[in-house]
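About this split. The held-out portion is used to measure sequence recovery: a designer receives only the structure tokens and must propose an amino acid at every position. Recovery is the fraction of positions where the proposal matches the reference. Here is one held-out target exactly as it appears in the evaluation file.
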């Protein structure tokens, strides 16, 4: 018997949801784009926010020791990663934390590498900070993205790359990078003195028996040049309350990062974010287990239906609740594909090309919704794209 409710669809049309905003005007559309979930949150999170609201004083707040311990304990028990209290730095979001790393560790015009297709704020943040984006293309092999390590090393050397932003698990491809792949990345970074920012925001959402390897658990040497970024916000659907963390074990890098955080006046964290994060990481184990079962069921259903009934190629995610769909068999331009999805299927998906050139003819679909929603969306796709 399920303990938590993953079947009710909350009405998000009236609560300022970015994902559901257009549905106010177009009630026939189903939104499966922005990476948040259409599920009711863990009750302890809601209770914690209620208790805070009842207190009726909302002034400046410091970071409680219990929050620090909740994060360290979660990392240790879920991911086998232990680190000192001093290494843990809170920032309002992973994307802001990424911007800080770019500012702290690179100069204008220096090169920052990403694997494309990539979560769009990576390239955006590099460009807006006037650094150079180096795109290392992922290639598809046996239905999953892989890194061409020879090309990666070449890209790093030819562009004098200073910083590499790795997405593990990968958005939009859902790869949970294996230990041997991560070791190669670490060795290349070490050899060429590249700092590594490892965005592990999807770390808890591994599916189908895949296991996340936190970068700093792989080798003591890697801790010297790695910045881990993560949060409870993706796992527990609390992105709106704002709270994330960086883990920087090298004291020199940490000081540089802290100085940049202060220069930007980004050292204060929302109280709601801190409360929700602590509640999630303290009470969320069973909720997360149930969530993952729901996500696996949704992924499997879409994969089976679309493979059997359409020419859409589904990349089965090893982690995340995002599915990368390949529509190239239909030979449509990106505009025509988006129009078809929106007008014929009445589905709002992320356009693949927003993730980079490799995304042409693709779209990203978010499966974090009750099964009934996923079933309806799949029916619409089948109807539009049937053989
Ligand atoms: C890889 C990745 N990093 C960061 C974020 C967002 O982080 P935040 O909301 O903490 O800025 C997302 C959201 O989808 C993501 O997929």
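Reference sequence for scoring:
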């Amino acid at each position: 018997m399920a303990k938590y409710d993953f079947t009710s669809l909350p009405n998000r049309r009236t609560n300022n949801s970015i994902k559901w905003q257009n549905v106010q005007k177009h009630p026939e559309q189903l939104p499966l784009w922005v990476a948040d979930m259409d599920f009711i949150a863990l009750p302890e999170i809601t209770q914690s926010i209620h208790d805070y609201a009842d207190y009726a004083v909302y002034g400046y707040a410091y970071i409680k020791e219990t929050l620090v311990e909740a994060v360290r304990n979660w990392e240790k028990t879920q991911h086998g990663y232990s680190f000192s209290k001093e290494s843990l730095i809170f920032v309002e979001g992973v994307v802001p934390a990424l911007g800080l790393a770019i500012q702290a560790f690179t100069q204008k015009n220096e090169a920052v590498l990403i694997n494309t297709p990539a979560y769009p704020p990576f390239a955006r943040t590099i460009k807006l900070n006037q650094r150079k984006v180096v795109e290392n293309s992922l290639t598809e092999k046996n239905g999953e993205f892989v890194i061409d390590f020879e090309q990666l090393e070449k890209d790093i050397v030819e562009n004098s790359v200073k910083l590499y932003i790795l997405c593990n698990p990968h958005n939009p491809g859902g790869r949970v990078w294996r230990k041997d792949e991560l070791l190669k990345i670490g060795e290349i970074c070490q050899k060429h003195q590249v700092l590594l920012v490892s965005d592990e925001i999807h770390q808890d959402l591994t599916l189908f028996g895949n296991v996340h390897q936190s970068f700093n658990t792989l080798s003591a040497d890697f801790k010297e040049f790695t910045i881990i970024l993560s949060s409870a916000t993706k796992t527990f659907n609390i992105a709106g309350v704002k709270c994330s963390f960086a883990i920087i074990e090298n004291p020199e890098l940490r000081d540089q990062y802290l100085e940049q955080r202060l220069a930007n006046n980004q050292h204060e964290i929302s109280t709601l974010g801190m409360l929700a994060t602590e509640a999630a990481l303290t009470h969320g184990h069973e909720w997360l287990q149930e969530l993952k079962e729901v996500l696996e069921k949704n992924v499997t259903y879409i994969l089976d239906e679309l493979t059997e009934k359409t020419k859409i190629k589904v990349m089965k995610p090893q982690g995340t609740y995002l599915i990368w769909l390949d529509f190239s068999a239909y030979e449509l331009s990106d505009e025509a594909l988006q129009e078809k999805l929106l007008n014929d299927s009445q589905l709002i998906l992320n356009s693949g090309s927003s993730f980079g050139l490799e995304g042409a003819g693709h779209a990203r679909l978010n499966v974090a919704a009750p099964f009934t929603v996923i079933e309806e969306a799949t029916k619409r796709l089948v109807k539009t794209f049937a053989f």
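Annotator remark: The pocket of pyridoxal-5'-phosphate is lined by residues 35, 93-95, 119, 167, 171, 199, 201, 231, 233, 239, 244 (CB under 6 Å).
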